[in-house]
Amino acid sequence: MKITGEQDQSPQNETESTEKRNxxxxxxxxxxxxxxxxxxxxxxxxxxxxxxxLEDMQEKRVAVYARVSTGDPRQTSSYELQKNxxxxxxxxxxxxxxxxxxADEGISGTSLQHRDAFVxxxxxxxEHKIDLILTKSVSRFARNVLDCIGYxxxxxxxxxxxxxxxEAENIYTLDRNxxxxxxxxxxxxxxxxxxxxxxxxxxxxxxxxxxxxxxxxLLGYDRDEDGALVVNEEEAKTVRLIFYMYxxxxxxxxxxxxxxxxxxxxxxxxxxxxxxxxxxxxxxERHCGDVLARKTWTPSYLNHRSRKNxxxxxxxxxxxxxxxxxxxxxxxxxxxxxxxxxYGNRGFLPELxxxxxxxxxxxxxxxxxxxxxxxxxxxxxxxxxxxxxxxEDQNEIEVSVQxxxxxxxxxxxxxxxxxDVAQKLCVTFxxxxxxxxxxxxxxxxxxxxxxxxxxxxxxxxxVRPSVKGNRRAIRWAKSVDGLAYSRSTSGRAxxxxxxxxxxxxxxxxxxxxxxxxxxxxxxVLLFNLEDTEVFVPKDQFPGENDGAKxxxxxxxxxxxxxxxxxxxGFGENYYCHREMRTLxxxxxxxxxxxQEDISAFQGETSIRAISQETLQTEIAKLIQEMKQENxxx
Length: 633
Hints:
This protein is 31% helix and 20% strand. The chain is α+β, with helices and mostly antiparallel strands.
């Protein structure tokens, strides 16, 4: 039976149909060759020939860019020659009109910093005030590859495009093949700057090693024919007044206002002073005759941004390098005052003070906001009244048990750190603050202020009551509805020294348990700083894969850790546990006096700055002389 509309398909017809749908590779290639074989019916319309830059007679507004990389007067001739030369080039070329000469003098080409003329020229290009930039060479335009190529591309992408002609290299940036040549030449220019920077740094290093220091202009000094600093007595009066007023208690702002009223000139001749300029003079060690070389350094020769030298590069110090205007003791006193002002302590000079007798003998007073003292200073202060070798062997204690007494030998006192007791007496240290538990505060009733003392050899911290008017006191508590609660105390000035003294890690927190001792009406809290819990950031612990993280107690961002030797038991021998050792180290004697006065430590760290009476006299004398000089003028 045959259905209408359908046709019989023989095997031969099916094969031919398949070949038409799926041509062979040879057939495909033949079709492609035929497609590209002829140009029948195609008419060529030739492009308009673009004249070369020098043959182009159309009017162009041409900007000239000139630069010399140093402010040396001898470079002035090169600077002027560049400007005159390109002004003549523009005038000679038909159709070119000078749009302006943009010139930077005494500026490096590796950065756009301070290149005001260059930046102004690029802005004028963006505002279509310039059609062409003419400059001597790639190195004059920029010694930074990114700047050179980046600006060339940006200007070429404007409508209409703006080209740059580098005369020495004969590179015109609107030429199609110019970018490869420009990239190569600009790379060479940048590397030349790099080499010059390395040579200069090496030269400076060799100079510093031989005590040949750079002597920039400094108030109070002139330079002789050999470049050495010599005192300028008229300017030195200003320097002395600044130091004396700061030692007397004036702030930098108050000093700046006084100098402005007295019309005292700065080194550059200005009679308007700022607090920053006063602080710069106070911190410059050259005023006491010393030199510290390489206070700053420049990480990259490309941007020339300097950083404070924090032992990133060698520094060189030479004392008594030149005549001093200010005594070294006065200079050191000022530096301590400046450091302490950062932590809210103004107007007084902190001194190390040590207890010379009594139960707290050898303890040195510390204040969390007093800066300027190092670990060595605390050790020397303590040793001045108690030799360092008096630390007793606390591991061997001979015990005898009387008849009828219970023999506790072989028993251990479990460590308090293993118990979660709300009434613990403890203090917690971080790298920038310390805080006592509320139990500590309530163990010293009616004492919102306390003194902190440390024995650097015995590793003991003592806390004794004090009063608000005592400048050595800190406020460690607050009162709410008649109840005392603890408060954190900032310790950024002192705590770094404590962490160094105890070998603690600044990324961790440390918690120390304490004991209260009371005799009569006197009480003191003692903390053994060798008996600590450590709270370690969890990112410092091993990962899940090694099976250790599951053993770490979950205490939020940090986890508790204990010394490895604690794994040998729950505590210490009853007769030599930590509390008894602390009491032994505390030196309990017949002379139990907790409020023994503290005396100033007179040692290497002590300074003998000018007295307040002398300061007052000198300040009045200098101001009177300056007023007299102004009236004579």
